[in-house]
Amino acid sequence: MGAGLVERDAELEALVASVGAAAAGEGSAMLVLGEAGIGKTSLIREFLRSVEGDVHVLMGICDDLLTPRTFGPLRDAAAAVGGPLAAALSGEPDRENVYRALLDELSRSDAPTILVVEDIHWADDATLDALRFAARRLERLRAVVVLSYRDDEFQADHLRQLLGALSGSTVRRLALHRLSENAVTRLTQAAGAERPAIYTTTQGNPFFVSEVLSSPTTDVPATVVDAVLARVHQLMPATQVALDQLAVVPSHAEGWLVTALLGGTGPLAEAEQRGMVELRPEGLTFRHELARHALERSMPVSRRMAFNRAVMVALLERDHADLSRIVHHAVAAGEIPVILSHGPRAAREAAQAGAHSQALAHYEHVVAHIDALPSDAQARILVEYAWQLYAAYRFIEAVEVAERAAGRWDLIGDRVAYGEALVAVSRSAYMADRPGPARAAIEEAVRVLADTGNTAAQAYAQAYHGAVLSLTDQLEAALEQLALARELAERSNRPDLVALCLDYVGWTRVALGDELGVDDLRASLELAMSITHYEYVARAYTNLGEAFYHLRDHDALQRCIADGVQYCTDHDLPAHAYSLRAHSAQLMMVRGDLEGSEELLRDLVAGVPDAGQLARLTLPTLGRVLARRGSPEAEQVLDRAWEIALRGDALLSLAPAGLARIEWAWLTGDVDRAHPQIDVLLDRTAQAGGFRCRGELLRYLARAGVPVEPFTGCPEEWAAGLRGDWRAAVAEWERIGDPYERALELAESGEVTFTLEALEVLDGMGASAAAKVVRQRLRELGVTRIPRPRRAVAVANPSKLTDRQLEVLALLAEGLTNAEIADRLVVSTRTVDHHVSAILTRMGAATRREAVRMASDLRLVSG
Q: Can you say whether the dihedral through the CA atoms of 609, 434, 509, 735 is positive or negative?
C-alpha cells in the first residue's frame, strides 16, 4: 500500500469485499466520507486498481461550479463507456428515461458494475435524485455504488435525502480519520525529513502532510496555502502561468481543453513530475482540489477573470459544451453577454430535468443583468424565473417577479403573453396567502384572453380560475368554470390542462361531499404521469392526500403519502412534498402518535418559516397536538394559525385553525376564549362544503355544555355523539381509526368502566389535557381511587426521556454524530440538535459522552 494509503487497510478491504458480494447478487452502496484532504480519492482509486479487469466501471466527479451541471457526473460516467445511459443523457434528457437507463447500466449480467461518484456534496439535484432512485433498488442489482463526500460541510436537503435513503443492510459508511502521530512520523522519516512540528501543524490530515513534506522550505509552513504556494514558486515561470490557468477549472480539464488553453500538456510537465498535477482518465487535474483552491484564491481578481475568460472562449468554440460550465466561467469572468445568451438555456435545461434548484440559480445569474435584454426577452425570462421561485417556496418573490413580467408584456402589447403571466401572478399570490390579489389576477387573465382567439391560453387561464374558485369556497362556480376549461383544453389538444381540470374537479366534488371525486383525482394523476408533467403529478398527489384525509380513508392516505413524497423528492418539488409530509403529521395525530406528529410538524415549520398557504397544514395541527399534550405553547401557536387563516379567508384555512382553537378552549375549560372562531365557523359551514367541519364544531360545543342538535348531512361519527348515542359514536371512531375521539366518546358513557378505559387510552398517547378532563369526569361519577398519570417510565427511565429521546440516546451510544442520527431517523439535523440538548438538560449531563455513560449506568442503553 502506498504512502497515501497509510492506515486505510480496513476501508480498502471493505470496498473490495463489496464487489464480491455484488457478484453474488447482493448490491450495496459504499459511502466514503471525511474532511477535505483526508484521502477519499486516493482510497477509491486504489480500490479501482485492486479490482481492475473484473468489473464494469462508471466514473463521475462533481465539479465545484457556481451552479452544478445537470446530471454532470452521470454524463461524464456515461460518455466514457457509451451505452443506454449516454443515449438517455443526450440532448435535453427526460428524467424517467435517465432513471431507466441508469438501472440498465447497473443491471449488467456479464460482470458486476461499480458506479463511482466523487464529491457528491457538489452534486446537482437531478444527479442526487437519480442516485436515490437507484439506491432504493440496489438489493436486487449486481452493482456497487461508491459515493464520496465531505462530512465537514453543510449538507443541502437533496444530499440529506439521498443519505437518508441509503439505510439498512445495503449501505456501509467508511468514515476516514486523520493519520495517527506515529503514521505521520513514519512518513516524515521515509521522506528523509526532520520536522518534528509537522504533526502539530497538519493534525494528521494526509493531504496537508504530503504538501508540507513536499515543501521546499526547511521550516514547517504555517498553512497548507503557504505550502502549495511555496512549491509553485519553485517552478519555471511558464509552468506557474499554466498552473494558474488550470486552477480556475474545477475538478479536471479534458485533453482538448488543455490543448486549447495551453497548446498541450508540455507547459505542465514539470508540475506533473513534481506530483502537483496528475493525468487521469477524465483529464488533467490537480492532485487535490485543496491545492487548486489555494492557487485560485491567491490570484489577483483581474488575473483570475482573464483565465476564466479563456476557459469560457474555449468552451464556446466546442460543439455541445456543457451550458453550466460556460455560465460558471462567464460569471467568474464578468462576461455579461454570455451570461445572458447561455444562462436562460442552462436554466431551461435544468428545469426540464427537474433540477429546479439549479434552474433557479441560473435564472438569478441572468436576472442580475436582465436590463441589457430586449423587453420581450426580459418578460419571457421573468415568467420562467417566477415559476422556479414558486417551486422553491419563495412565493412572495414569485409574485413580485411575475408582476414585473406581466407589466412588461402589457407595455409590449402581447395580450396572450400578458394573460399567461397573470396566471403566474395568481398562482403565486394564492400560495403566498394573498387570495384577493390571486382572484383579481386570474379574473383579469380570463378577461384579457377571451378576445385573443387563442384557445390553449384561454383554457390555461380558465383552469387556474376554476382552481382559485375551488380553493376560496366558491365550489359550484368552480365546477362550472372547470367544465368550460376542460372543453377548451381538449379542443386545443392540451392534456396537461385536462389533467389540471380533473384535479380540481375531483377535489371540489370531495369538498361538496361526493366521494366519487376521488375517481377524478386518480384520473388526473394517471394522465399527468402519462405525459410526464411533474408538477401536475405532484399537485394531484397533494390534492388526493387532502381528499383522503377529509374522507377519513387513512389507509389510502398513507399509501398516497408514501408514493407522493417519493415522487416529489425524486423530482425536486419540495413544496408538494411539504404538503404530503404535513398530511403524514395529521395522520399521526389522528392515530394517537402525538409525539411523532409534534416532531414532524416542528421540523416542517422550522424548515420553512414563511410557508405561506402551506402553513394551514402545519400550524393548526401543531397547535392542536400541543393542546392535547397540555403544552402552554399551544395558545401562541394557535393564535398565529388563526391570524394566517383570517388572511387566507377560506374554509380550507379557517376550519383547521378554528377547530383547533375551539378544542384548546374546551380542554382549558374556558370555551368563551374561542368565541371569534365559533362565530366565524358557524357562519362559514352552513353549506354542504362545510358539513364535515360543522359536525366537529357542534360536537365540541356540546362537550362544552352548549345545547346543539345534529343536522341533515352531518357525518355519522359526529351525529351519533350529538344524538347522545355514545356507543354508536365509539363504534364509528373505532372504524375510522381515531383513538382520541373514541376515548372522548367513551368518557361520555357515564359508566365508570368505560370512562376508565378512556383514561387509559388518553394517558397512553400522552394526551394529558384530555386525560385531566376525564379524571374530573371520574370524580363526578364518585370514583375515589383514580389512576394517576403514568409514571412507569420513571422507574426504567428516571430521566423521564421521551421515546424519541431514548432512541436518539441509543444512537449517541453508537458513536453517531448529529448529522448521522438525522440521516438514520430521516429528520433534520436541527431536530436532532434539539433532542440532544433536551437529553443533556434532563439528565443533568455536561457532555454527550457523560450522557451516554450515565445512560449505561442506568441501563437505558447497552454497553
A: positive
Q: Is 732 exposed, middle or buried (0-12, 13-18, 19+ CB in 10 A)?
A: buried
Residue 34 gets which letter from DSSP? E
390 close to 406: Cβ distance less than 8 angstroms: no
Query: Whole-angstrom Cα distance, residue 233 to residue 291?
Result: 14
Rounded distance, CA 504 to CA 212, Å? 65
For the purposes of burial, counting CB atoms within 10 Å of the CB of 520, is it exposed (0-12), middle (13-18) or buried (19 or more)?
buried
Would residue 712 be called left, alpha or beta, if left means φ above 0 and alpha means ψ between -120 and 50 degrees? beta
Residue 20 CA: distances (Å) to CA of 46, 167, 334: 16, 20, 50
- β-partners of residue 278 are 285
Percent of the chain with pLDDT over 90: 56
Instruction: Count CA atoms closer than 13 A to 849's CA, side-chain side.
Output: 0
- Greater confidence, 758 or 826? 758
Name which of 141, 135, 179, 154 is nearest 31 in CA terms.
135
Model confidence pLDDT, tens digit, residues 800-822: 676 677 888 888 888 888 877 87
pLDDT confidence of residue 1: 33
Which backbone phi and psi does 285 adopt, to 5 degrees? Answer: -150, 155
Average pLDDT, the chain: 88
pLDDT at 846 over 80: no
Q: Which DSSP category does 786 fall into? A: P
Looking at residue 325, its pLDDT comes to 94
Q: What amino acid occupies position 570?
A: D
DSSP conformation class of 7: T
3-class DSSP state for residue 192?
A: coil
How far, in Å, are 3, 7, 215, 620 from residue 189 at the CA level? 12, 16, 15, 66
pLDDT over 60 (residue 389): yes
Local structure of 283: helix, strand or coil: strand
- pLDDT tens-place string over residues 471-511: 999 999 999 999 999 999 999 999 999 999 999 999 999 99
Q: Which residues of 352-386 are buried (b: 16+ CB within 10 A; e: fewer)?
A: bbbbbbbbbbbbebbbeebeebeeeebbbbbbbbb
- The CA distance from 324 to 624, in Å, is 47
Q: How far is CA 159 from CA 162, 234, 500, 690, 760, in A?
A: 5, 40, 31, 42, 43
User: What b/e string do you get for 153-185 counting C-beta neighbours within 10 Å, with b at 16 or more?
Assistant: eebebbbbbbbbbbeeebbbebebebbeeebbe
Measured between alpha carbons, how far is 653 from 613 in angstroms, rounded to an integer?
8
17 to 27, 536, 646: CA distances (angstroms): 11, 44, 61
According to DSSP, the β-strands at 277-280 and 283-286 are antiparallel
DSSP class of residue 714? Answer: -
Q: Using an 8 Å Cβ cutoff, are 597 and 589 in contact?
A: yes
The DSSP letter of residue 737 is T
In sequence order, the β-bridge partners of residue 32 are 148, 174
Residue 808 contacts residue 838 (beta carbons within 8 Å) = no
Closest to 110 in 3D by CA, of 23, 186, 170: 23
pLDDT of 655: 95
Tens digit of each residue's pLDDT (9 = 90 or more) over 197-246? 677 667 777 877 777 777 665 554 556 677 778 788 888 999 999 999 99
CB atoms within 10 A of CB 290: 18
Give me the pLDDT at residue 2, please: 36
Helix (H, G, I), strand (E, B) or coil at 207: helix
- The C-alpha atoms of residue 430 and residue 396 are separated, in whole angstroms, by 10
Nearest to residue 708, comparing CAs of 558, 697, 716?
Answer: 697
In tens, the pLDDT along 268-312 reads 999 888 888 888 877 898 877 778 888 888 899 999 999 999 999
| Cβ pair 442, 423 in contact under 8 A | yes
d(CA 463, CA 465): 5
The residue among 67, 70, 105 whose CA lies nearest residue 86 is 105
Q: What is the reported pLDDT for 137?
A: 83
Contact 4, 174 (CB under 8 A): no
